[in-house]
Design a protein that fits this description.
about 190 residues, globular, 5 helices, Nucleoside Triphosphate Pyrophosphohydrolase, alpha+beta, about 20% helix
């Protein structure tokens, strides 16, 4: 996280309020007791490995970060800056946190969810099948990444993920529904 950013403020319906920002140096609004709503863009990288198993990339948070050091988190994600679009934020955060360049046309919208009274999240998926495993951790937030088979993901989250993810059954059910709708789990013909 960069403490010189202004995060975009959103209305209760998820629409950005033009020109209204939250000073990132103040931390997340819920911590300070503010009623302001900010947004986060989340990107899950997934791939089918050489055994045709669905896997998701998880990042391990650096021991140097102030929130959830050493815990695993989604592939990439972070706050949406003032005036930035949802997809611009998703692309920027992926580049900053794990050194991966993605394009807007690769982003597959999964879900929009209110994480708490102060935060909306927009979750995207990117098919990373066939791409290399060269990740760069320049911003100090991430120490390593790990591909986790989808079949093991719930156990992995319970054991190793940061606390909010361990407690967030709604998001995982929504992602599971999205995966089923797109034929990525259950009923796949094996010819992905």
């Amino acid at each position: 996280m960069h403490h010189d950013e202004l995060w975009q403020v959103f209305a209760g319906n998820g629409e950005p309020i033009p020109g209204e920002g939250w000073d990132s140096a103040l931390g997340n609004p819920e911590v300070s007791g503010s009623d302001k709503i900010v947004g986060i863009a989340i990107v899950f990288l997934y791939r089918f490995n050489n055994k045709n198993e669905l896997e998701f990339l998880w990042q391990k948070r650096s021991e140097k970060v102030d929130r959830y050091p050493g815990d695993y988190d989604i592939s990439a994600g972070g706050h949406i800056n003032l005036g930035e679009s949802l997809t611009e934020a998703a692309i920027r955060e992926t580049r900053e946190e794990i050194g991966v360049e993605i394009r807007e046309d690769e982003l597959q919208f999964m879900i929009e969810a209110a994480f708490n009274r102060n935060r909306f999240a927009w979750v995207y998926a990117v098919d990373f099948t066939g791409r290399g495993d060269e990740f760069i951790f320049d911003d100090g937030e991430v120490s390593e990444v790990k591909w986790v088979p989808y079949a093991e993901m719930r156990d992995f989250v319970k054991k190793y993920a940061k606390k909010p993810l361990k407690e967030d059954e709604f998001t995982f059910l929504s992602i599971e529904k999205w995966l089923k709708m797109h034929g990525l789990i259950e009923g796949r013909d094996g010819n992905h």
